[in-house]
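Annex B, item 7. Sequence and structure tokens for protein A, then protein B.
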Amino acid sequence: MLSILVVVLLSYLIGAIPSSLWIGKSFFKIDIREHGSGNAGATNTFRILGWKAGTVVLICDFGKGLLCTTVISQLAWSIGDGPAVLYSGWEPEAMILIFAGVAAVAGHMFPVYSNFCGGKGAATACGMLYGIEPVSISISLAIFLIVMFSTRYVSLASIISTLIYPFSQLILRYGFNWDIDGSIILFSSVLSLAIVIKHKGNIKRLLEGTENRVQSFKPAKGRLSQEKGGES
């Protein structure tokens, strides 16, 4: 049990690193939560600080999830007695990856370093899922980029790519005999549903035609007080 607790705690602390907040304060002298959508995520960073800062935040948030599933999760096998005996009937490695990834996403959404006020977890979840199964998430990532750059709605891109993700895994497993553990598919489905529910405000604004687009990939400057819109 010690191994599980250590992995979960470390993953949470890494996921909780508020990259958008720290970059905004360090290089732009602003609190990203006080501008745009008020969300401490990559979308608001793109909108307020421009594409360079937004890209750095996106990579950092993606990297947190990837690091926890590919590196931190492996500590479980060297601490204590290992987790295998705890999950009779389950694939232990898949479960450890899921525990580490979920902790990272929870850390991003509720970061201890910034009063538990974080982002919506899409970028960190993407990195976490890439560490678990890279092919299907790569498909979703490509769809995300296509939708984002063609519509400039980051929220719409997040929702569509999230919904497609578990279906990609099902097609890979049953259509191409890809070796994807059933627990991972189940987890992906639940996670996708949770992320879509988290975007319910964005969905409402999209249907009403009031959702904000990313107007420019340059720093916002005069747009720092624009009304709240989509988040990720």
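Protein B:
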Amino acid sequence: MKKRKIAIFASGNGTNAAELIKHFKNHPEIQVGLILSSSSKAGVLKVAKEHNVPSSVVNKSLLSNNGYTTALLNLYDIDFIVLAGFLLLIPPFLVKQFEGKLINIHPALLPKHGGKGMYGLHVHQSVINEGDLESGITIHYVNEMYDRGKIIFQAKCKVDRRDNAEKLSKKVQELEHKYYPEWTEKLVLQTRFM
């Protein structure tokens, strides 16, 4: 049986990508077939190399080029896309092509603290500045707007008075690593592929 291939789109250090790769390493039905990054300096490319996963770097204009992206995905035979700290907006044709097969994880409880510029420590600082008593993760489908797709799953953690953005980031990252691989697996396995 042909394995379902996921592509991980990431722009940062790749800690979630590393967890996903480990989770699917010996999976009978799913494999990580590609790491796509928006930066040639991103740590996620090192993660891809360490785990022998093919990788590619794409900029905003290339990602928006329908022909390039379609060729890239056809070349790697990708069935499902997982965003893991990817900072570029996904173009509408790709959202349409992968409808129901394109997910993201956001390091806060959407709909608050989402949108353009809400990534990394910016999100956690926003949560602290608002005086929120809890934060967490949101796994959601991707649509044409940042962080506005249908919510699939949320997990929460307490925000302590002594938390700064870095401390809160660590708490949220624990939730990401715990839940994102298992939810990715669940969603890939329940999705119908033609």
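Comment on protein B: DSSP finds seven helices and seven strands in the chain.
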